[in-house]
Design brief:
The protein contains 12 helices and 6 strands. The chain is α/β, with parallel strands linked by helices. The protein has a domain of 188 residues: 3-Layer(aba) Sandwich (Rossmann fold), CATH 3.40.50. Strands 5-4-3-6 form a 4-stranded parallel beta sheet. The longest helix is centred in the middle third of the chain and has 23 residues. It is globular, with a radius of gyration of 19 Å.
Length: 269
């Protein structure tokens, strides 16, 4: 194992479950709402939430479009029910159609994919409010650092339980939890358009990108990371550049400094 390959800490599961109990219960909060996509990230979050809060406090929501495979819809529903959690399905095709009808000039597939992600966020928050619950995001550390999420879409949530675990660590946790092989082996995809996969769009496998990100976390130079991983310096630079280029996604919208204390600058909660 490479010195830069992330290793799942033995305390990760207990830490996340305690985090969920601290944030999702009390002060009017009665649990979590989680968007279940059929992928490993949402499956892990649902399992951890069930274990931490009890099945009665976790609601899994599927939000398929017209292209969503029926067999995956059934598999994901069965997985949620195997956890004992409540499941709900909301079809988003009519909402997508309404958007296209209102703005027919928007035809770029990335823009429409972002719309799809934001529709799902709106639905999750509407359901969560009715149930006095928080929306649990399913993004991992790799996606957050790379900016590989939609602002106010899948990036719109109240808590990020696996946000400090790299994708490879999430896979290791899924194995430890005994998640079904079909979920653990499925190619990661945001499902934003037909044939889309995370690694295909990023142009690099998570096994490689996580080693670069872990090196950056340790404040290693790009040259050191290249030597330690065996990856070309150009590939390391590409990942490091993306982390910097998408840092705006990890920040509050910038505000000009005018008052005595300014939100996001010197007024911090």
């Amino acid at each position: 194992m490479s010195a830069l390959e992330p290793r799942l800490p033995p305390y990760a599961r207990a830490t996340i479950e305690q985090f969920l109990r601290s944030h999702a219960l009390g002060e009017g909060r009665e649990g979590l709402v989680i968007g279940l996509s059929g992928g490993i990230d949402s499956a892990v979050v649902a399992r951890l939430a069930r274990d931490a809060l009890g099945p009665e406090r976790v609601l899994g929501v599927q939000m398929p479009d017209d292209r969503f495979p029926p067999e995956l819809l059934t598999e994901t529903d069965e997985y949620g029910r195997s956890l004992g959690i409540e499941m709900r399905t909301v079809h988003i095709a009519p909402l997508e159609a309404a958007f296209v009808s209102a703005l027919p000039e928007v035809g770029d597939r990335v823009a429409l994919g972002n719309v799809k992600a934001r529709i799902r966020m709106i639905l999750l928050y509407a359901i969560a409010r009715e149930r006095s619950r928080l929306v649990a995001g399913t993004g991992n550390k790799s996606e957050i650092l790379l900016g590989y999420f939609t602002k106010y879409g899948d990036g719109g949530c109240d808590v990020l339980p696996i946000g400090d675990l790299y994708k490879t660590e999430v896979r290791a946790l899924a194995t430890d939890l005994g998640l079904p092989e079909a979920i653990r082996s499925r190619a990661p995809t945001a499902g934003l358009w037909e044939g889309q996969t995370d690694e295909g769009e990023l142009g690099i496998a998570y096994a490689e990108v996580d080693r670069v990100l872990h090196g950056l976390e340790q404040l290693r130079s790009e040259t050191e990371i290249s030597e330690a991983t065996g990856l070309p310096i150009s590939r390391v630079h590409e990942v490091a550049d993306r982390v910097q280029r998408y840092r705006h996604k990890r920040r509050l919208p910038p505000i000009p400094k005018i008052g005595l204390r300014t939100v996001g600058i010197d007024w911090r909660d």
